[in-house]
Amino acid sequence: MNKFLLAVAATSMAVPAAPTLAHNTGYSHRHYTSDNGVQYWQGRDGRYYCKKSNGTVGLVVGAAAGALVGRAIDTRGERATGTILGAAAGALLGREVQRRTVKCR
């Protein structure tokens, strides 16, 4: 019984490792290069592509800065409106600023 359990344990550890030993042919036609932190690759159609940032960090930083500026500008009564509008405007502005820093050709 112990030999059987040992064989099952050894097999269960060897089976998940089999795909890692396979030859990776799916991405062999793409050539990755990096230029100032921007990744470029050549697609199957021969055109070059690059990975652009989705602007998440700029969105968060812009929203935080916009909320602070909006709260400072709106000094009368309830300041939630200025905070919310400032956060929304700052988020949109921060996202666009970050997305435009990478120029893909």
Structure write-up:
One of its GO terms (cellular component) is cell outer membrane. This is 17 kDa surface antigen. The chain has 105 residues and is mainly alpha-helical. The chain has a domain at 56-99. It is 52% helix and 10% strand. It contains four helices and three strands, in the order H-H-E-E-E-H-H. Strand 1 (33-35) and strand 2 form a beta hairpin. The radius of gyration is 26 Å and the shape is elongated.
The averaged pLDDT comes out at 78
Secondary-structure element string: HHEEEHH
Structural class: mainly alpha
Order of strands across the biggest sheet? Answer: 1-2-3
Overall shape? elongated
Residue share in helix: 40-55%
Features:
mainly alpha, Gly_zipper_2TM_dom, signal, three-stranded antiparallel beta sheet
